[in-house]
Amino acid sequence: MSNIFPKWANKVPILLGICISVGVVLCIAFIWYYFSPKYTDVGYAPVQPVPFSHKLHAGDLGMDCRYCHNTVENAAQASIPPTETCMTCHSYVLPESAKLSPVRESFAKDTPIEWVRVHMLPDYAYFDHSIHVSAGVSCVSCHGRVDQMEVVTQNQPLSMGWCLECHRNPGPNLRPLDKVTDLGWDPKKAGYDPAKDPHRLRQVNPKVDCSTCHR
Ligand code: HEC
Ligand code: HEC
Ligand code: HEC
Ligand code: HEC
Ligand code: HEC
Hints:
Elements (H helix, E strand, L loop, with lengths): L11 H24 L1 H4 L13 H7 L4 H4 L14 H8 L10 H9 L19 H6 L4 H5 L16 H9 L41 H4 L2
The structure holds heme C (HEC) (5 copies).
């Protein structure tokens, strides 16, 4: 009887135990990593070098997004403003503020502020702001209520499925061009119908073939 299993078989239960526990740990690590907000990216809100508040500047003070992100209508990228833009006000608004000292230092030394990127697509995906903004898609569809954020937080997954969902049915996300940066304006409440907007020269029809975004 004692010869049916070779001697090493005694170790099998131990090895099996080790394998299973390693497997469980890997499984937890996998779920933790891939389901964490860092991976899906929604909720990602890195700490910035200056506590710049969109709620204060864009919300309370009512500054238009394009005052600072002035290429958003004409270029693929929405520019991050240079320090000079801040200093047009902050050379006399709160000139002593400690929170603004990195801004003054950047201005004096002529070195850019190292803002941390929040939204980022992989290199193999092509995106262009101007196409979307000129079609009447608002910042709010992709970035949420930035005008209410103290710290910019990623609000949408920016995944391929998410892009395609709107490309297949853009209608509910369209608005008049002069309302693109008015994040609180709701096309549904206003009963907006893009087909009846005399300012629209053509109806938008986003493409869904692969080469649209992978070129
Ligand atoms: C006074 C200038 C200013 C105004 C006005 C402004 N922004 Fe910004 N925005 C910045 C600066 C500076 C950053 C980089 C720091 C940060 O992320 O907070 C930024 C970052 C962002 C980002 C994140 C960029 C990234 O790294 O992914 C988004 C999205 C954004 N702004 C959208 C908006 C929208 C929408 C509006 C209008 C409601 C707006 N901004 C108005 C200055 C401004
Ligand atoms: C159009 C004018 C204007 C521009 C441009 C502007 N700000 Fe401001 N900022 C203000 C005002 C007004 C306040 C609030 C002042 C107060 O609370 O009395 C303020 C407050 C701040 C504060 C809070 C300071 C504190 O001590 O509480 C920070 C930080 C700040 N701004 C950063 C920036 C940065 C960074 C930029 C450039 C991306 C910028 N601001 C561009 C007008 C401006
Ligand atoms: C259709 C979706 C969509 C709309 C509409 C949109 N954005 Fe973006 N935005 C993105 C994506 C996606 C990125 C990341 C781009 C990348 O990594 O190349 C981004 C990045 C940014 C950035 C970081 C700099 C850059 O260009 O990569 C800023 C600032 C920004 N958006 C501001 C705005 C503002 C302001 C508006 C409205 C006028 C707006 N966005 C409208 C999807 C959108
Ligand atoms: C909220 C709606 C919406 C979202 C989200 C969206 N798009 Fe679009 N996209 C549009 C509209 C509307 C157009 C304009 C189509 C037209 O002009 O006929 C467009 C056009 C484009 C174009 C130009 C090619 C074409 O179809 O005319 C590219 C490239 C593009 N989108 C990439 C992306 C990528 C990449 C993402 C995700 C990161 C994305 N879009 C997310 C609505 C959206
Ligand atoms: C509207 C824009 C858009 C179109 C159309 C599109 N993709 Fe993508 N695709 C993306 C974006 C954005 C990502 C990056 C997603 C991310 O970062 O999670 C992506 C990612 C991918 C990936 C990497 C794996 C993944 O899912 O993240 C593959 C593979 C891919 N796309 C293949 C395709 C194929 C094949 C087609 C045609 C059937 C296609 N895509 C059409 C925007 C698009």
